[in-house]
Automatic annotation (TrEMBL):
HTH cro/C1-type domain residues: 12-67
Protein's UniProt name: Transcriptional regulator with XRE-family HTH domain
Species in which this protein is naturally found: Micromonospora ureilytica
Regions of compositional bias (Basic and acidic residues) in chain numbering: 235-247
Annotated region described as Disordered, given as residue ranges: 212-258
């Protein structure tokens, strides 16, 4: 049995023994029960959250990829298999026997983990079968998640239009569920931005955010998922006092924290799209609103896989400022935010993607050293972000043409097969 075939629970058990820990010792360090550790190791409890695997890896003193059974080395070039994904999207015959929901949920969780760890080669191989299973099962939540993962990967691999099509499939699968529609809108905005359709992305993201977030102009206290907050966009006072929200006559309800993370993510996407349109003031307003949402979230789960939080908003600010042309200010902000604890807790994919975006922004304003530093850092965090993405290869080529080429970029150019 190869390393990739060994269940993750068994790998946890192996490394626990290697570290001379009992199940109770591991449980104590994780602040969990011995029963939880036992169920994980026996495969009874699934490990499908990035943060939990990251926590386990930290305690066991290994890289998260080791627990996932995957190697950090990443070959250069776009992974083969995009045509298989395209073929799976073109299959409309869903008469096959549907997967059991629990098994399909496990597969979707594994796909998310592969994406968050930037294992794009592995994900390309997994997605065609997952798309077949999800399209056959027709469970809206899992179908939307599968389409979102697929769309995000296709955008990274330079297939923005196909990613847009897949994101639109997610919108259709979401039907009348407002939160599923909102999560699908995140993918729509990402695909539109990647297609240089920033104006459409701005409209799509801001409209979707406004549907699930209350109006931003009433600074009154609120609760987010049962947790107190006082710095974000609040439910309008007149709606609270009359017992109405989200439409005339609709009963007021407490929004789970997950809804606010989706809304905040949409605001971030809208801000980045506004910056792409040259609307700096609007971009700043949208990041301020997103910062308000992020400030009220404390200790929440992330069921919609957004990674949203205060650090994500700060990263968006850096990109907005860089897009505006203020390279010096952007570099100062960048240096500050990447030293924060919240930065290290973000998935490898998110950090790598941000660094590639930062490199792109620095290149646009002529700061080739800033672009080089961001590219080298991205390669150390998530090699596939640099070695598999056409966007990154383009930036590397541009920066490598400088005389002399900034440190580290010549090596990257050689790794990805580019010549000066």
């Amino acid at each position: 049995m190869s390393s990739d075939d060994v269940p993750i629970g068994r790998r946890v058990a192996r490394w626990r023994v290697r570290r001379s820990m009992t199940q109770q010792m591991l449980a104590d360090r994780l602040r969990r029960s011995k029963s939880w550790v036992d169920k994980v190791e026996r495969g009874v409890r699934a490990l499908d959250r990035y943060s939990v695997i990251q926590e386990l890896a930290h305690v066991l003193r290994v890289d998260p990829e080791v627990l996932l059974g995957q190697q950090r080395s990443t070959s250069a070039g776009t992974p083969d298999g995009v045509d298989d994904i395209r073929a799976a999207l073109a299959r409309y015959d869903t008469s096959q026997a549907p997967e059991q929901t629990d098994e399909l949920r496990r597969q979707v969780g594994y796909a998310w983990l592969s994406y968050q760890h930037a294992h794009y080669g592995q994900l390309v191989r997994v997605l065609p079968g997952l798309l077949d299973a999800a399209q056959g099962a027709r469970t809206p939540e899992l179908l939307v998640q599968t389409y979102r993962i697929t769309s995000s990967l296709l955008v990274k691999l330079g297939e923005a239009d196909l990613g847009w099509l897949t994101a639109d499939r997610a919108m259709s699968a979401a039907a009348d569920d407002p939160i599923l529609v909102a999560t699908a809108a995140i993918s729509v905005a990402q695909a539109l931005r990647a297609s240089n359709r920033d104006r459409l992305a701005l409209t799509a993201a801001e409209t979707a955010a406004n549907r699930i977030l209350p109006a931003p102009s009433h600074p009154v206290d609120h609760e987010v998922g049962g947790l107190r907050g006082d710095q974000t966009a609040r439910q309008p006072h007149d709606q609270r006092s009359e017992g109405r929200s989200e439409g005339e006559g609709a009963p007021a309800r407490r929004r789970p924290a997950g809804e606010w993370t989706v809304g905040g993510t949409l605001l971030v996407q809208a801000a980045l799209a506004a910056a792409g349109c040259g609307e700096s003031r609007r971009a700043e307003e949208l990041t301020e609103r997103a910062a308000g949402v992020a400030a009220s979230l404390r200790g929440y789960d992330d069921p919609h896989r957004t990674s949203f939080g205060p650090v994500v908003v700060e990263l968006a600010r850096v990109l907005v400022v860089a897009q505006r042309g203020d390279a010096v200010e952007a570099l100062q902000m960048h240096s500050t935010v990447v030293r924060r604890e919240g930065w290290r807790r973000l998935p490898a994919e998110y950090r790598g993607a941000y660094l590639v975006d930062a490199a792109t922004a620095y290149r646009k304003v002529g700061d080739l050293r800033g672009a080089a530093r961001a590219l080298v850092d991205a390669d150390s965090v998530a090699p596939a972000e640099v070695r598999c993405r056409p966007l990154a290869r383009t930036v590397i080529a541009d920066v490598a043409r400088a005389q002399p080429a900034p440190a580290g970029v010549a090596r990257l150019a050689a790794v990805v097969g580019l010549t000066r």
